[in-house]
Amino acid sequence: MGRPADPARRERTLARATDYVLAHGLGGLSLRPLAEALDTSPRMLLYDFGSKQELVAAVLAEARRRGAVRLAEHLPPKTGSVQERLRGIWAWISADERAPFVRLFFEVHADGLVHPENYPDQGEAITDWFDTLGAAFRDVSTGPDDTVTPTLVMAVVRGLLFDLTATGDRHRTDRALDRFAELLKQ
Amino acid sequence: MGRPADPARRERTLARATDYVLAHGLGGLSLRPLAEALDTSPRMLLYDFGSKQELVAAVLAEARRRGAVRLAEHLPPKTGSVQERLRGIWAWISADERAPFVRLFFEVHADGLVHPENYPDQGEAITDWFDTLGAAFRDVSTGPDDTVTPTLVMAVVRGLLFDLTATGDRHRTDRALDRFAELLKQ
DNA sequence: TCGTTGTTGAAACAGTCGTACCATATACTC
DNA sequence: GAGTATATGGTACGACTGTTTCAACAACGA
After folding, report:
1. Is B75 on the interface with A (CB under 8 A)?
2. How far off is chain B from A43, nearest CA to CA, in Å?
3. Which of A120, A170, A175, A176 could form a disulfide with B151 if both were Cys (CB 3.0 to 4.6 A apart)?
């Protein structure tokens, strides 16, 4: 009895809110401008998500879900040399289309350093790449439980992403990755 | 004639404000709490710095100045193997005492990605390590103008710092750096 | 039609923000 | 003392924040 609930509205809003956050960042996020960009009202955002904090949590979960999907779509190729695979990962993650994700990634990390209490699973966001990467670089690992190789590979990727996003120097960062690939081969 | 100006007050305030920002981060910085912690008033902060934006700029400049001094005090030892030098840099930069600097570093970078217009010299903060590092790792460089080696070394350090600050896993990150040092030696 | 449940708008609340204005106090020269 | 420049307190403004409150409307079953 009574009017039927419309769960699709929340999903629609969540999707568009995630777009908005990816485009504008988390830092200055405010309900009123967000609502206006989404053709809704702060009233409805709170109605659907309870509070701003819960909305942000939902948006971050959605962003991570999207990232995982995109990654799964891309990673399959396990063929080729170590260099080719490494270059493939770098080319993908450093492409302009990934820039909003990368930006949000860095923003969340930085905010997590100041307010760790808001990000109870910050560590997982780092280490959950390891299963995937460990498999992709099994031939240069020291063993099946080797976490050091994925750690180093991801550190290089993240460090170069940091450099690239700050300096915009594509040529230099590309060459540094090539250099690392050569070192790894030996 | 008239009351003499007291430039020392501004300097004192700047020093304490920098301490405060290093302790509390840039994100939620607000004049009133800052002033209270510094035993002054928002009125005086604006009197000395003109605006919040200029205050922040002054604080960031001061923080960078301090970091450069600390680095200069530490780096001199150019002796030892590549591994020893690399481990020395890592041990120093990843020490707990450097945590506030590292945190602010990541925070500024993330904010710079969202508001590039506020950080006209973001790139320099990355590349001005190169002269120092290029000299320190000359023996593994391909030439005197090699920017690839410093780029890769700093990427590893920053990437592992990212990992360490997010996961707190000292053991794994230390071992990853050792692994990189071995690769670099060959 | 009525009761019930979900949805939505408008407005207000209590708070914080950076900043400006106005008066006053302080420390100096003459 | 007067004159003058710096230093400071107090206060208020206008714009914003997340959130709440109250009312109305919409869609359904009985």
Report:
1. no
2. 25
3. A176
- The angle formed by the CA atoms of residues B120, B126 and B127, to the nearest 5 degrees, is 100
Q: Cβ distance A18 to A63 under 8 Å? A: yes
Q: What is the pLDDT of residues A126-182, one digit of tens each?
A: 777 766 776 778 777 787 788 999 999 999 999 999 999 999 999 999 999 999 999
Q: Give backbone dihedrals phi and psi of A50, rounded to 5 degrees, phi first.
A: 90, -50
How many whole angstroms separate alpha carbon A113 and alpha carbon B77?
Answer: 31
Report pLDDT digits (tens) over A16-75: 999 999 999 999 999 999 999 999 999 999 999 999 999 999 999 999 999 989 988 887
First to last CA, chain B: 70
Which amino acid residue lies closest to nucleotide C17, measuring CA to C1'? B30
Residue whose token pair is 């780029």: B151
